[in-house]
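Hi D.,

Good news: the full-assembly prediction came through. Inputs first.
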Amino acid sequence: MASGNLGLTYGGQEKTPSLSGETEFAAEAGAPGGLFHADYKRHDDLKQMLDSSKDSLKLEAMKRIIGMIAKGRDASDLFPAVVKNVVSKNIEVKKLVYVYLVRYAEEQQDLALLSISTFQRALKDPNQLIRASALRVLSSIRVPVIVPIMMLAIRDSVSDMSPYVRKTAAHAIPKLYDLDPEQKDELVMVIERLLSDQTTLVVGSAVMAFEQVCPERTDLIHKNFRKLCAVLVDIEEWGQVIIIGMLTRYARTQFTDPNINGTNHSEKDKPFYEESEEDDEKGKQTESLVLDPDHRLLLRNTKPLLQSRNSSVVMGVAQLYHHLAPREDVAIVTRALIRLLRSHREVQTVVLNSIASMSVNRKDMFEPFLKNFFVRSTDATQIKLLKLEILTNLANESNITFILREFQTYISSQDRDLVAATIQAIGRCAAGIKEVTDTCLSGLIALLSNSDELVVAESVVVIKKLLQTHQGSHGDIVGQMARLVNRITVPQARAAILWLVGEHCEKKRVSKMAPDVLRFMARTFANEQDVVKLQILNLAAKLCLSNPKQTKVLCQYVFSLAKYDQNYDIRDRTRFLRHLVFPSTEQALLAKYAKKIFLASKPAPVIESVFKDRDEFQLGSLSHYLNSRVVGYMDLPNFPAVAPDSNVRNVESPRPVIPVTSLRGNSASAPSKGKKKETFYSESSSEDDDVKDESGSSDSKSDSSSEMDSDSAESDSDESSSEEDPDDSVNISQQNIVRLSPSLSPSPPAQRLSRTLVIESSSESEYSSNSSDSDSNDSDKVVKSSRMPPPKSNLDLLLDLDVSDSAPVMASVSGIPLGTLASTPITDSSIQPASAAYTSTRPTELVSSISSGCGLQVLYRYTRSINLYSPSMVTIELTLVNTGNEELTEVKITNKNMPVGISMHEFTTLASLPVGATRLVTVGIDFGDSTQNVSCDLVASGRPIKINFRPSVGELIRPVTCTEGVFINEQGKLKGMNEHSFSITNTLELEDMKNISTKIFRTTNMASINSSDPNTLRFAGQTLSSKSLVLVTILVGTNPKLSVSCEKMIIGSMLLAELKEALKN
Amino acid sequence: MIHSLFVINHSGDVFMEKHWRSIIPRTVMDYFFEAQRQVVKDNKGHEDVPCVIATPHHYLISIYRNGLYFVAVCMSEVPPLFVIEFLHTVVDILEKYFTECNESNIKEHYVVVYELLDEVLDNGYPLATEPNILQELIKPPNIIGNLINTVTGKSNVSSVLPSGQLSNVPWRRADVKYTNNEAYFDIIEEVDAIIDKTGSTVFAEIAGKIECCVRLSGTPDLTLSFINPRLMDDVSFHPCVRLKRWENERILSFVPPDGSFCLMTYHVGCQSAVAIPIYIRHNFFLPKENSQSQTGKIEITVGPRQTMGRVVENLQLSIPMPKFILNCTVTLNQGRATFDPVTKILLWEVGKIDPTKLPNMRGQIHIQSGAVILQSTPSVNVQFTLTQIAISGLKVHRLDMFGENYKPFKGVKYLTKAGNFQIRM
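Then the structure:
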């Protein structure tokens, strides 16, 4: 009756007493096989319940069916009855039906199709949970016929308003891919879109889909790399693991080896610890200089994850550091790994396995934690052995006594496996560390008299190996061991002794005993194991050669015994030995050398860690654990010799910014790589969008709705979905992910996108048409046009309109707590770029006419306008004046010697610079938010002139504006280390306000923010490269104070220093 | 990723299976049973079943908890720790739901378990594993809930998405309301040590954790500060803790999940001196190999060492004897001793240590007749507790709450336990 109760208690439903008897059957594990009849009847009964109109009965029936599935019993014959209930209103019944469907749909494909329309309807449900679960089930029923429907559903859902549904869509992608790999191309596009999603909830799943479907498409990651790094901490744990794994592979293709100078390190540092230390020192000086900023970003942002409670995240970071970090940085993962050793047994096993592999080459990392690897009697055997392995790997002269003492206690352990492994480990230590070889050897010999046979046998094998590596006469030891032959029964040990005797048969003490040993062995030959038999043959042959007088007959006897052995290896060996040792006359040629062949000195075996060759696999992977290639394992690529262009990761600034730059350009600007890829998607739609655009799309709302009417055949689409429309499009425009053209996605959501699409692609098409008629020679014109802010075009107005339009709606949406990326700078459209408040008109001299040597004078100034080539570049205008008396030809910049992370766009070569002429050219430099010197050669008439650009921090910033509220809010986020302030000593009067502003504007390129408080001045900007906010506040009045907040601490502090200086004057 | 999950009980029956992708026949478990048999043959414990088993087409990754094996079947490359950690998370969730995750509980609540399993994993990838969210999606079974369901006709499956899933604090459920607002923090430290024959400490370390039980209404923002946070060598946090605050100020600042959870774990490493609260004087010898005698001797005395003025309580010594020992007869001046002839463990439940009268045990060990005597020495596993003290000296400075207007009741408790405390004889 227990299960009857179950129904009552947990079903929470009353049921008729007549049913409870059968319920007992259903719930009982493994009903006896003899009850097939009852089984059948019971199913009938379930069908009845499912057909009834009462939800409670249906639920009860479903629960019992799920019970059957859970126990692995067949419930497929109920399929027709169950599938009808997919329309049930009761959420729990529905859920259980879903579970059932996923389990059996594959087997009953035709019937399963009946349920599809329900899911399609549910996909449009206003409740996000229902939409998501419908998508989950739809994608989980593995019926190939519905592939197109799935594709449609996924495409719909990736632009769903709810991040939860988008996450589910990401999960659906690999399912569809498994079902029909043909869909890959289209899925890749969907993935690309999901990757650029701004919610942390989605990103992890998007990367998971990426890993499953198209792990080779690293180009999709470029643009998202920095974002992924930034949000990594906020993503849920499982997503972190997957992203870290992916980034490890990505980084291996994009960055150069940080340890390039210490590549032969691993081979070298094996024997001596000190040596490796030295190498490290050398390494440090050269390596730390050349790390790509993105590489460093990755390392820095993954580091906090070492404190995760999830062991697989910690392991993920550890392997990332192991594979990517400069040698000296890897050590920071040690402590976290050690911490995992207190976790569950299974975790310990895997972690120890990885540590064992790491400790082969990274002794110094784990040496301080030696004691953590001491074996406890309560450990599982596997863990004990791994710990032993690690201890052995870590052994060196300084800690060997310590380790040996520890080993000694293990030998008296009750765990036989541990004892055997310990003896092996002692052998390895002895072979590796010369100082202790003798001690170990005598210790092992002492073990020969141990009462435990296993200990003795293991010691024999180890001593054999040691004697081989250790030069010198070991007659005594061999003699002592030869006496053990009678006692030891373990075949390996017997074989080892025989081999030793044979090898040392000419030594003083052994030579007398050897024939006796052989005689003894000949007697037991028939009963020996194969290994032993082979060694007896060897011994016989060797003795026969060295001491034929005593042993020749014995040897022949052994050979004839072996001739009829069951094992063909032994028969073969006998035949071969016989001809060498007892040659018939014509074969004597080789036999002459028999002694040399048999008694040659053999190379010593190398005793090393079994974990040595695991380096080929990625640490922490299943393949690494099993030391064999697992299905689906992807090799870690080797570091490229030269890093690919790092600019591909430069993300263009948020949406409102790009169009402006490209519009302002009005002429040539070389498109960057990332740019090109984008146009690819919007190209197909660009034409008709252009048209719409011209037809006054300022009223874009009506435009989009009209398009929806015309395009959607089923535009009777649910009320609910159209209600959501405005929200949806805002959501999307805010996230700037509109890349799909309508032709690719004829589904309703895509139409919803159309409004944003118009804007987006129109600006891009404009851009591409511009670039097509570009003329490379008119760089002068570029300069001029970029110097003064151009009149706002229609498009500009449209864009502005869009921004201001979306902002208020945004506010209404923000009621939904989106897990937006707090740490990505400027995702908020309320922060917009502004134009420079002040531009210096007086150029400064860069190269004087005297120092150039050819009469060329170079002046420069910061134009503070947005660079055309890339928005992250600082635009510098150079004035070239030929003050000499001969014409200069071929003026150009060469030999750009850029530090990593800094790139430069030079001006086009000037064919000639006549005497007295002045030319204006611009260069763009992406300083990567650093104030490093950028030097290059300016060549005029073939003569190089060295020039240096050293930016002031103020120039690395671009002005942005926002409301005061946003300003204060953002400033609140940048507290602590990110805030720099100092109290101004010389009192500033209120009338000085304007003066102060001017000073600020002169020093730095920021925009002033309207302040409600008359005593506070606020300025905002963002760094050019990383788009981090820079916020400056000046308090005047009784307690004057200047504070700078910036995510980049260095920028913040340097700016503070500069501003301080500026205000003093 | 994870294709299927099989749950196996002690007697080797698969009593629950769940497939997230295509169905994998149960026969794949034969490889697992094979490994299990091998372990039994080798005279080893359940812990020695390898946690990763490679079969020709599948990879079986298993954990062993509460007498049950949870075996995940994978078909392609996946970080083994990922799967192991996930399985442990599942068991943790089940424990939260049914207080204990054992066979009868799983069988009794198979529908809830199945619904949970369906929710935590989608197509082999974890979907939602945060207990607070799951508890909103699928209500834990309890009597009152069932009564309500029966009356109102509602189910224990939620029809709306828990708002936590979408918020910035996914670990906390929304609309928490309590009449008594309380927050309890238990600082539990475990001393891990290996002490050798002579009584000197080979290795000692403290592993601490802070277990919280927070029942506060609304969305409280808590900060917890310590008097001496520098003691902690290595820390790991619940995702709710703000890492920046910790790095800069050594303050734990967090919006807690609702209910009980582990806020952080920390280590006090072997570099700093660790107080060892007890010492043991022991005498253990087996008869010589060739002697006719079939009895050995054992004598143990336990005493307090650095207890920081507290009484050592719940002291318990367990000594795994060599396999050839038949029985032990001991006399005690305190507590109770039992010898299990199957596992060969001599267990002495001592209780409190009275410094004036030290607990003492002496007795004889009887050897199985005819058995080969191997000179091996057992090690003593020690359990004890010291209440109201964290042996590392860690102390909470203060706990503040922001964001809500009520005054919560706050409590901090300290406890020191023996972790992996071993004395070699």
